[in-house]
């Protein structure tokens, strides 16, 4: 067991491999946060609360209760009882009151980890989890809040969530129900977030904390291009390899808030949960509400270690399914090759060429259904566009299979076009506010996935397609955000539940799909990477990273994504040049080397590219297959930092047993009359020797590679890197 309760000090201790988390039941049953950091011996840490120091003193004849409440580091802070910092919970009771006061009532510790009803969450993998549930009670409101914490045997991660229950006779409303609060006894940190836009997702932002509140959020109904549901705070001097870092990642795909508040005493409160703006959830007698999960990590080994902690837990305790531990088939997607302009012959001509080159799966993207020739129609009409797919889907798939390739298909299940048979039949199925005009985006509306009959119907149509041919992959897309958020079926006092009910509906359908079709490889996508979140990783082992497929833009996008999410989950393809998003020309080799970091595939018209490029494809596939196990299971190290110096980038995958290293370098801008760059490797065995696979004469000690570095890349003539956007891959093997 890695969780203990000390009866004398009333302290809970949660141990992970290298970290410790402590909280204590203090005066009058308040649950205080004591410590999150390196491992400590079993000693009393109550002194950290400064109870002997005004204004932190719990009570002096109850005189100073107010200042005590405003200063105690609460494990799960409430509103309305003297704590004026941001609260984790907000309520409205049947009398119109908003005060809430949660006190410790009981706890239990057990092996394993409970599933969270209707929600994605990490799971126990072969007995590697221990869980603590602390029951908190507001006996006036009759609200029970169960704080749930799980630790994992092999990673420095703590998973936490909260379950609420109305145990009284009157209904009340949760107006906010965050999943986690983390109190830190200093404000001397930088806040790191991942922000961006379409085609520019997850750019790294780092700012020193300041007094007051600083936050990122989504109110778009999905996790979003703009802000990723993640935040970290780190010491001012933290870099990739050194310094303290606290990381929080939300296992959720809808509206969220991630906030840091620095208070009057230079302490910091971190909060994460479903966005409380425009949120309300009615709890009738006996009803539960389950808040989604937050994954927390702490390290004093820098931002890179934070990332590796997240990668490890996601790879072993979050991602599921047949492809979890498998190299994914090398696919070719026709989107950037044809957009909406394709038919059976065109797709087969791509398959003809692709199969000869060793590509293993053809993915038919948007435009195969209804009468869809552009993005202005047919969403919801999930039947085959026979004029395009002459001979039908089954025929197409059989022909693709005959060429030795698998077949995959695109859906956008949550959407409905005004120009569709579905909308004519069921206009009320679109999310809308009765009497208001519906806002279009990409000429489409969003289906009300809170309604079971809507989900059932869409699923029925998807099944008809999936059962009609040998389909082995689905790209589940989501191309607009929510507006006029109202449902035709919810009562007025439950309308604000729709944001969350929508997300639960999406999860429900993904759950049905992955349960009924366990062999299908599911890839998530949302206008590129607007749903690259840990919630989605529970259903799909890979997510399309960005619609920006330019290899140089991808350096930043993939590096930002790797802050939290494992490379094995990043949808990454070699696409055509000039690149369709930025018009840049990059070498075919570099495009392959950069896409190899992720799931790897092609997104171009292979019948029209140059012979020279085409010739490289079999080699790229061979290279991907050779290194994919290392990429999927190894430790990832960022070496370059394009956010600080965008003239070069480098990164590395190191086997867990340190037996091999894959080093990749991209020279973004060539430099005249300069020496080669000296680049230090990371994470190797310092006592071992490594040789270059392509030049076994060259042997280095792990110490030399890490402390002195290697010269990239002119030292051997075969190594020379020539021109802008050129790349180099070097494989080192332990001697
Ligand atoms: C989104 C996706 C693309 C493509 C198009 C199709 O933009 O990110 O990859 O599937 O939709 O409309």
Structure description:
The chain is an alpha+beta fold and 735 residues long. The chain is built from 13 helices and 40 strands. The protein has three domains: 3-317, alpha-galactosidase from lactobacil brevis (Beta-galactosidase, Chain A, domain 5, Distorted Sandwich); 331-416 and 450-478 and 521-632, Alpha-Beta Barrel (TIM Barrel), CATH 3.20.20; 648-734, Golgi alpha-mannosidase II (Immunoglobulin-like), CATH 2.60.40.1180. 19% of the residues lie in helices and 30% in strands. Strands 6, 7, 8, 9, 12, 13, 15, 16, 20 and 21 form a ten-stranded antiparallel sheet that branches. The protein has a nine-stranded parallel sheet with strand order 30-29-28-27-24-23-22-32-31. Strands 33-34-35-40-37-38 form a six-stranded antiparallel sheet. α11 links the parallel β31 (574-575) and β32. Bound molecules: alpha-D-galactopyranose. Alpha-D-galactopyranose binds at residues 335, 365-366, 375, 410, 477, 479, 525, 527-528, 544, 547.
Kindly report the average pLDDT value: 97
| Number of spatially distinct domains | 3
Q: Helix proportion of residues, in percent?
A: 10-25%
CATH fold name of the largest domain, please?
Beta-galactosidase, Chain A, domain 5
Instruction: Give the number of helices.
Output: 13
What is the count of β-strands? 40
Q: Tell me the Rg in angstroms.
A: 27 Å
How much of the residues is beta strand, in percent? Answer: 25-35%
Q: Tell me the span between the first and last alpha carbons.
A: 39 Å
Q: Any idea what the shape is?
A: globular
Helix-and-strand structural type = alpha+beta
Level-2 CATH architecture of the largest domain? Distorted Sandwich
